[in-house]
Write a structure and sequence with these properties.
- By secondary structure, this protein is mainly α.
- Among the domains are: 71 residues; 65 residues, DNA polymerase, domain 1 (Orthogonal Bundle), CATH 1.10.150; 143 residues, no CATH class.
- A two-stranded parallel sheet has the order 1-2.
- α9 packs antiparallel against α10.
- The radius of gyration is 54 Å and the shape is rod-shaped.
């Protein structure tokens, strides 16, 4: 190889190296810049990454915290949900138990209702059978009594004439057979030693009021009493079967006749009777207030021969020792006893008192009194023989269509489905006419009659029949004013049947009877000519009662 070649070769190598150096230097600078830029970018990116990582870590911590809280809340909610589920399960179990218990109660109630209905049906049937048996027994007793009476009369026929003029020691005549003489006056006559009709017939009529101890406001027709005694004294003595029931306080000739008709002719039989039986026999309306317990108590003493005890008991009864102050509104047993201890035993005594005196009497006794002014005002009316209207407590306002009031309650027992118990409950709340009964709502009627579900009372039928009777009697729109009717059975010739007819015709006070015409009374009585009562005598007795 030539020198030039070597020189060229060396120059080429040097030139190449130089070019390579130059090129490498330029590339290195660029690379360094790039590396520096990349490093700066890397640092920026690393800072951003670190910041992002920090944010992610913070977010992660927040998420973890929130997740923990949510997990705790979820656990709490799950626990609460489990408790509620258990409570619901318990409630469902209790509800099911109560439903089972209710179903059992309903089943038992239905069974009891059926049992009660069956028992009521059996009791009704038994009651009907017993009533039939009782009626048969009464008829048999009446027949036996009639036979016994016939035998006694037959056995004594031979001696009656001889005995007619002989006075039995200790036995007097029945002065209650004389009009105007009741048990109280008869007892006073006996205490005065007047025991025979002949004794009474010999009295001077002017002396009779003093003998009877009449007060200034009490009236009696002495001439008529003596005249009747003379007539009775001239009649043969009658033999009486049984005891004189009119000797007991509260029993007059009318009630004694009813008792005898029912087979109760002795004190023993009356003492053995119960109040329900006596109420059925007498059939007194609700406003009469007959105290059958007093009858039985007196009969027991009379049957035992305890005359002292009988007199002591009768002295406690109002008609023997003053008036019945309990008839005055607001005076009950306790108040009456307090007034009696203070010497106030009659209407006149109470009428003469002052409110201050009554207030002092009850204050001393340590008792509550009442409306003294009202007591005194009513006592004055009763002492003067005036009729007192008793206001009733009505459970409802007057029905629409009411046109007038009447003082006589109608016979509500005439309505199909209404017996004596229902009648008394209706009277007690002021329902006293057919029309008033027909106008009651079912709710009012159920409340008044105290009807139970199992009784099956046909309310619609009761009201329909009441409306029929109101139409037939011409009393549509008529209400009862609550006044208690007067007792007509104390009058000669008027019994319970005729009394009811008078009430139905609107005559239920002494004033109304005293003002009635004989022709109207004859139409009301509806009796055949051969049974025609002395209607003029009815009117006369009513006027005497008012006088």
């Amino acid at each position: 190889m030539s020198t030039l070649t070597w020189i060229l070769f060396l120059v080429g190598i040097i030139l190449g190296w130089l070019l390579a150096w130059l090129f490498g230097r330029s590339s290195k600078e660029d690379l360094t810049k790039r590396i520096a830029k990349l490093e700066a970018d890397l640092r920026t990116r690393t800072g951003e990454l670190n910041e992002a990582r920090s944010q992610v870590a913070s977010a992660q911590r927040s998420v973890d915290t929130r997740a923990s809280a949510l997990e705790l809340d979820l656990n709490a909610r799950n626990t609460d949900l489990d408790a509620q589920r258990q409570e619901v399960a318990a409630l469902q179990s209790d509800l099911q138990a109560r439903a089972n218990e209710l179903a059992d109660c309903r089943s038992r109630a239905e069974g009891l209702q059926l049992e009660y209905q069956a028992r009521i049906g059996a009791l009704d049937a038994d009651l009907n059978a017993r009533n039939a048996e009782l009626q048969a027994a009464r008829k048999e007793l009446a027949a036996l009594q009639a036979g016994a009476a016939s035998q006694v009369m037959a056995a004594r026929t031979a001696t009656v004439d001889a005995l007619a003029g002989v006075e039995e020691e200790g036995v007097g005549d029945d002065f209650t057979a004389i009009e105007g003489i009741g048990p109280a006056f008869a007892a006073r006559l006996s205490e005065a030693g007047i025991t025979r009709y002949s004794d009474l017939a010999a009295i001077d009529p002017a002396q009779l009021p003093a003998t009877l101890g009449l007060r200034s406001w009490q009236k009696i027709d002495a001439d008529a009493v003596v005249a009747q005694a003379k007539v009775l004294a001239g009649r043969p003595r009658q033999i009486q079967i049984g005891d004189d029931l009119t000797a007991l306080e509260g029993i007059g000739p009318t009630y004694a006749t009813k008792l005898r008709a029912a087979g109760i002719v002795t004190f023993d039989q009356l003492a053995a009777a119960d109040e329900a039986t006596l109420d059925e026999i007498i059939g007194a309306p609700a406003w009469r207030r007959v105290n059958y317990g007093d009858w039985i108590a007196q009969a027991k003493l009379a049957a035992a021969g305890d005359q002292a005890g009988l007199k002591a008991l009768q002295d406690q009864l109002f008609s023997r020792q003053g008036d019945n102050l309990e008839l005055i509104e607001g005076i009950g047993d306790t108040a009456n006893a307090t007034l009696g201890k203070a010497g106030i035993k009659t209407y006149a005594d109470l009428a003469a008192a002052t409110p201050e005196q009554l207030r002092a009497i009850f204050a001393k006794a340590g008792q509550r009194g009442g409306n003294y002014e009202a007591w005194i005002a009513e006592a004055k009316l009763r002492a003067a023989g005036k009729r007192v209207r008793r206001e009733v407590t009505r459970t409802r306002s007057a029905p629409a269509g009411a046109t007038q009031e009447r003082s006589c309650p109608q016979d509500l027992e005439a309505v199909n489905g209404v017996g004596r118990v229902y009648e008394q409950r209706l009277y007690a709340v002021g329902v006293g006419t057919y029309w008033e009964l027909a106008m009651l709502s079912d709710e009012q009627l159920v409340e008044i009659l105290e009807v139970k579900d199992f009784q099956g009372v046909d309310l619609a039928a009761i009201k329909a029949d009441a409306m029929r009777l109101a139409s037939e009697t011409g009393t549509m729109g008529v209400m009862w004013d609550g006044s208690e009717p007067d007792d007509f059975t104390i009058f000669e010739g008027i019994g319970p049947v005729l009394e009811r007819r008078l009430y139905a015709a609107g005559i239920c006070t002494y004033e109304a009877l005293a003002a009635a015409k004989e022709e109207r009374l004859e139409r009301i009585g509806q009796l055949p000519a051969f049974q025609r009562p002395d209607y003029a005598r009815w009117i006369q007795q009513a006027r005497e009662q008012l006088a």
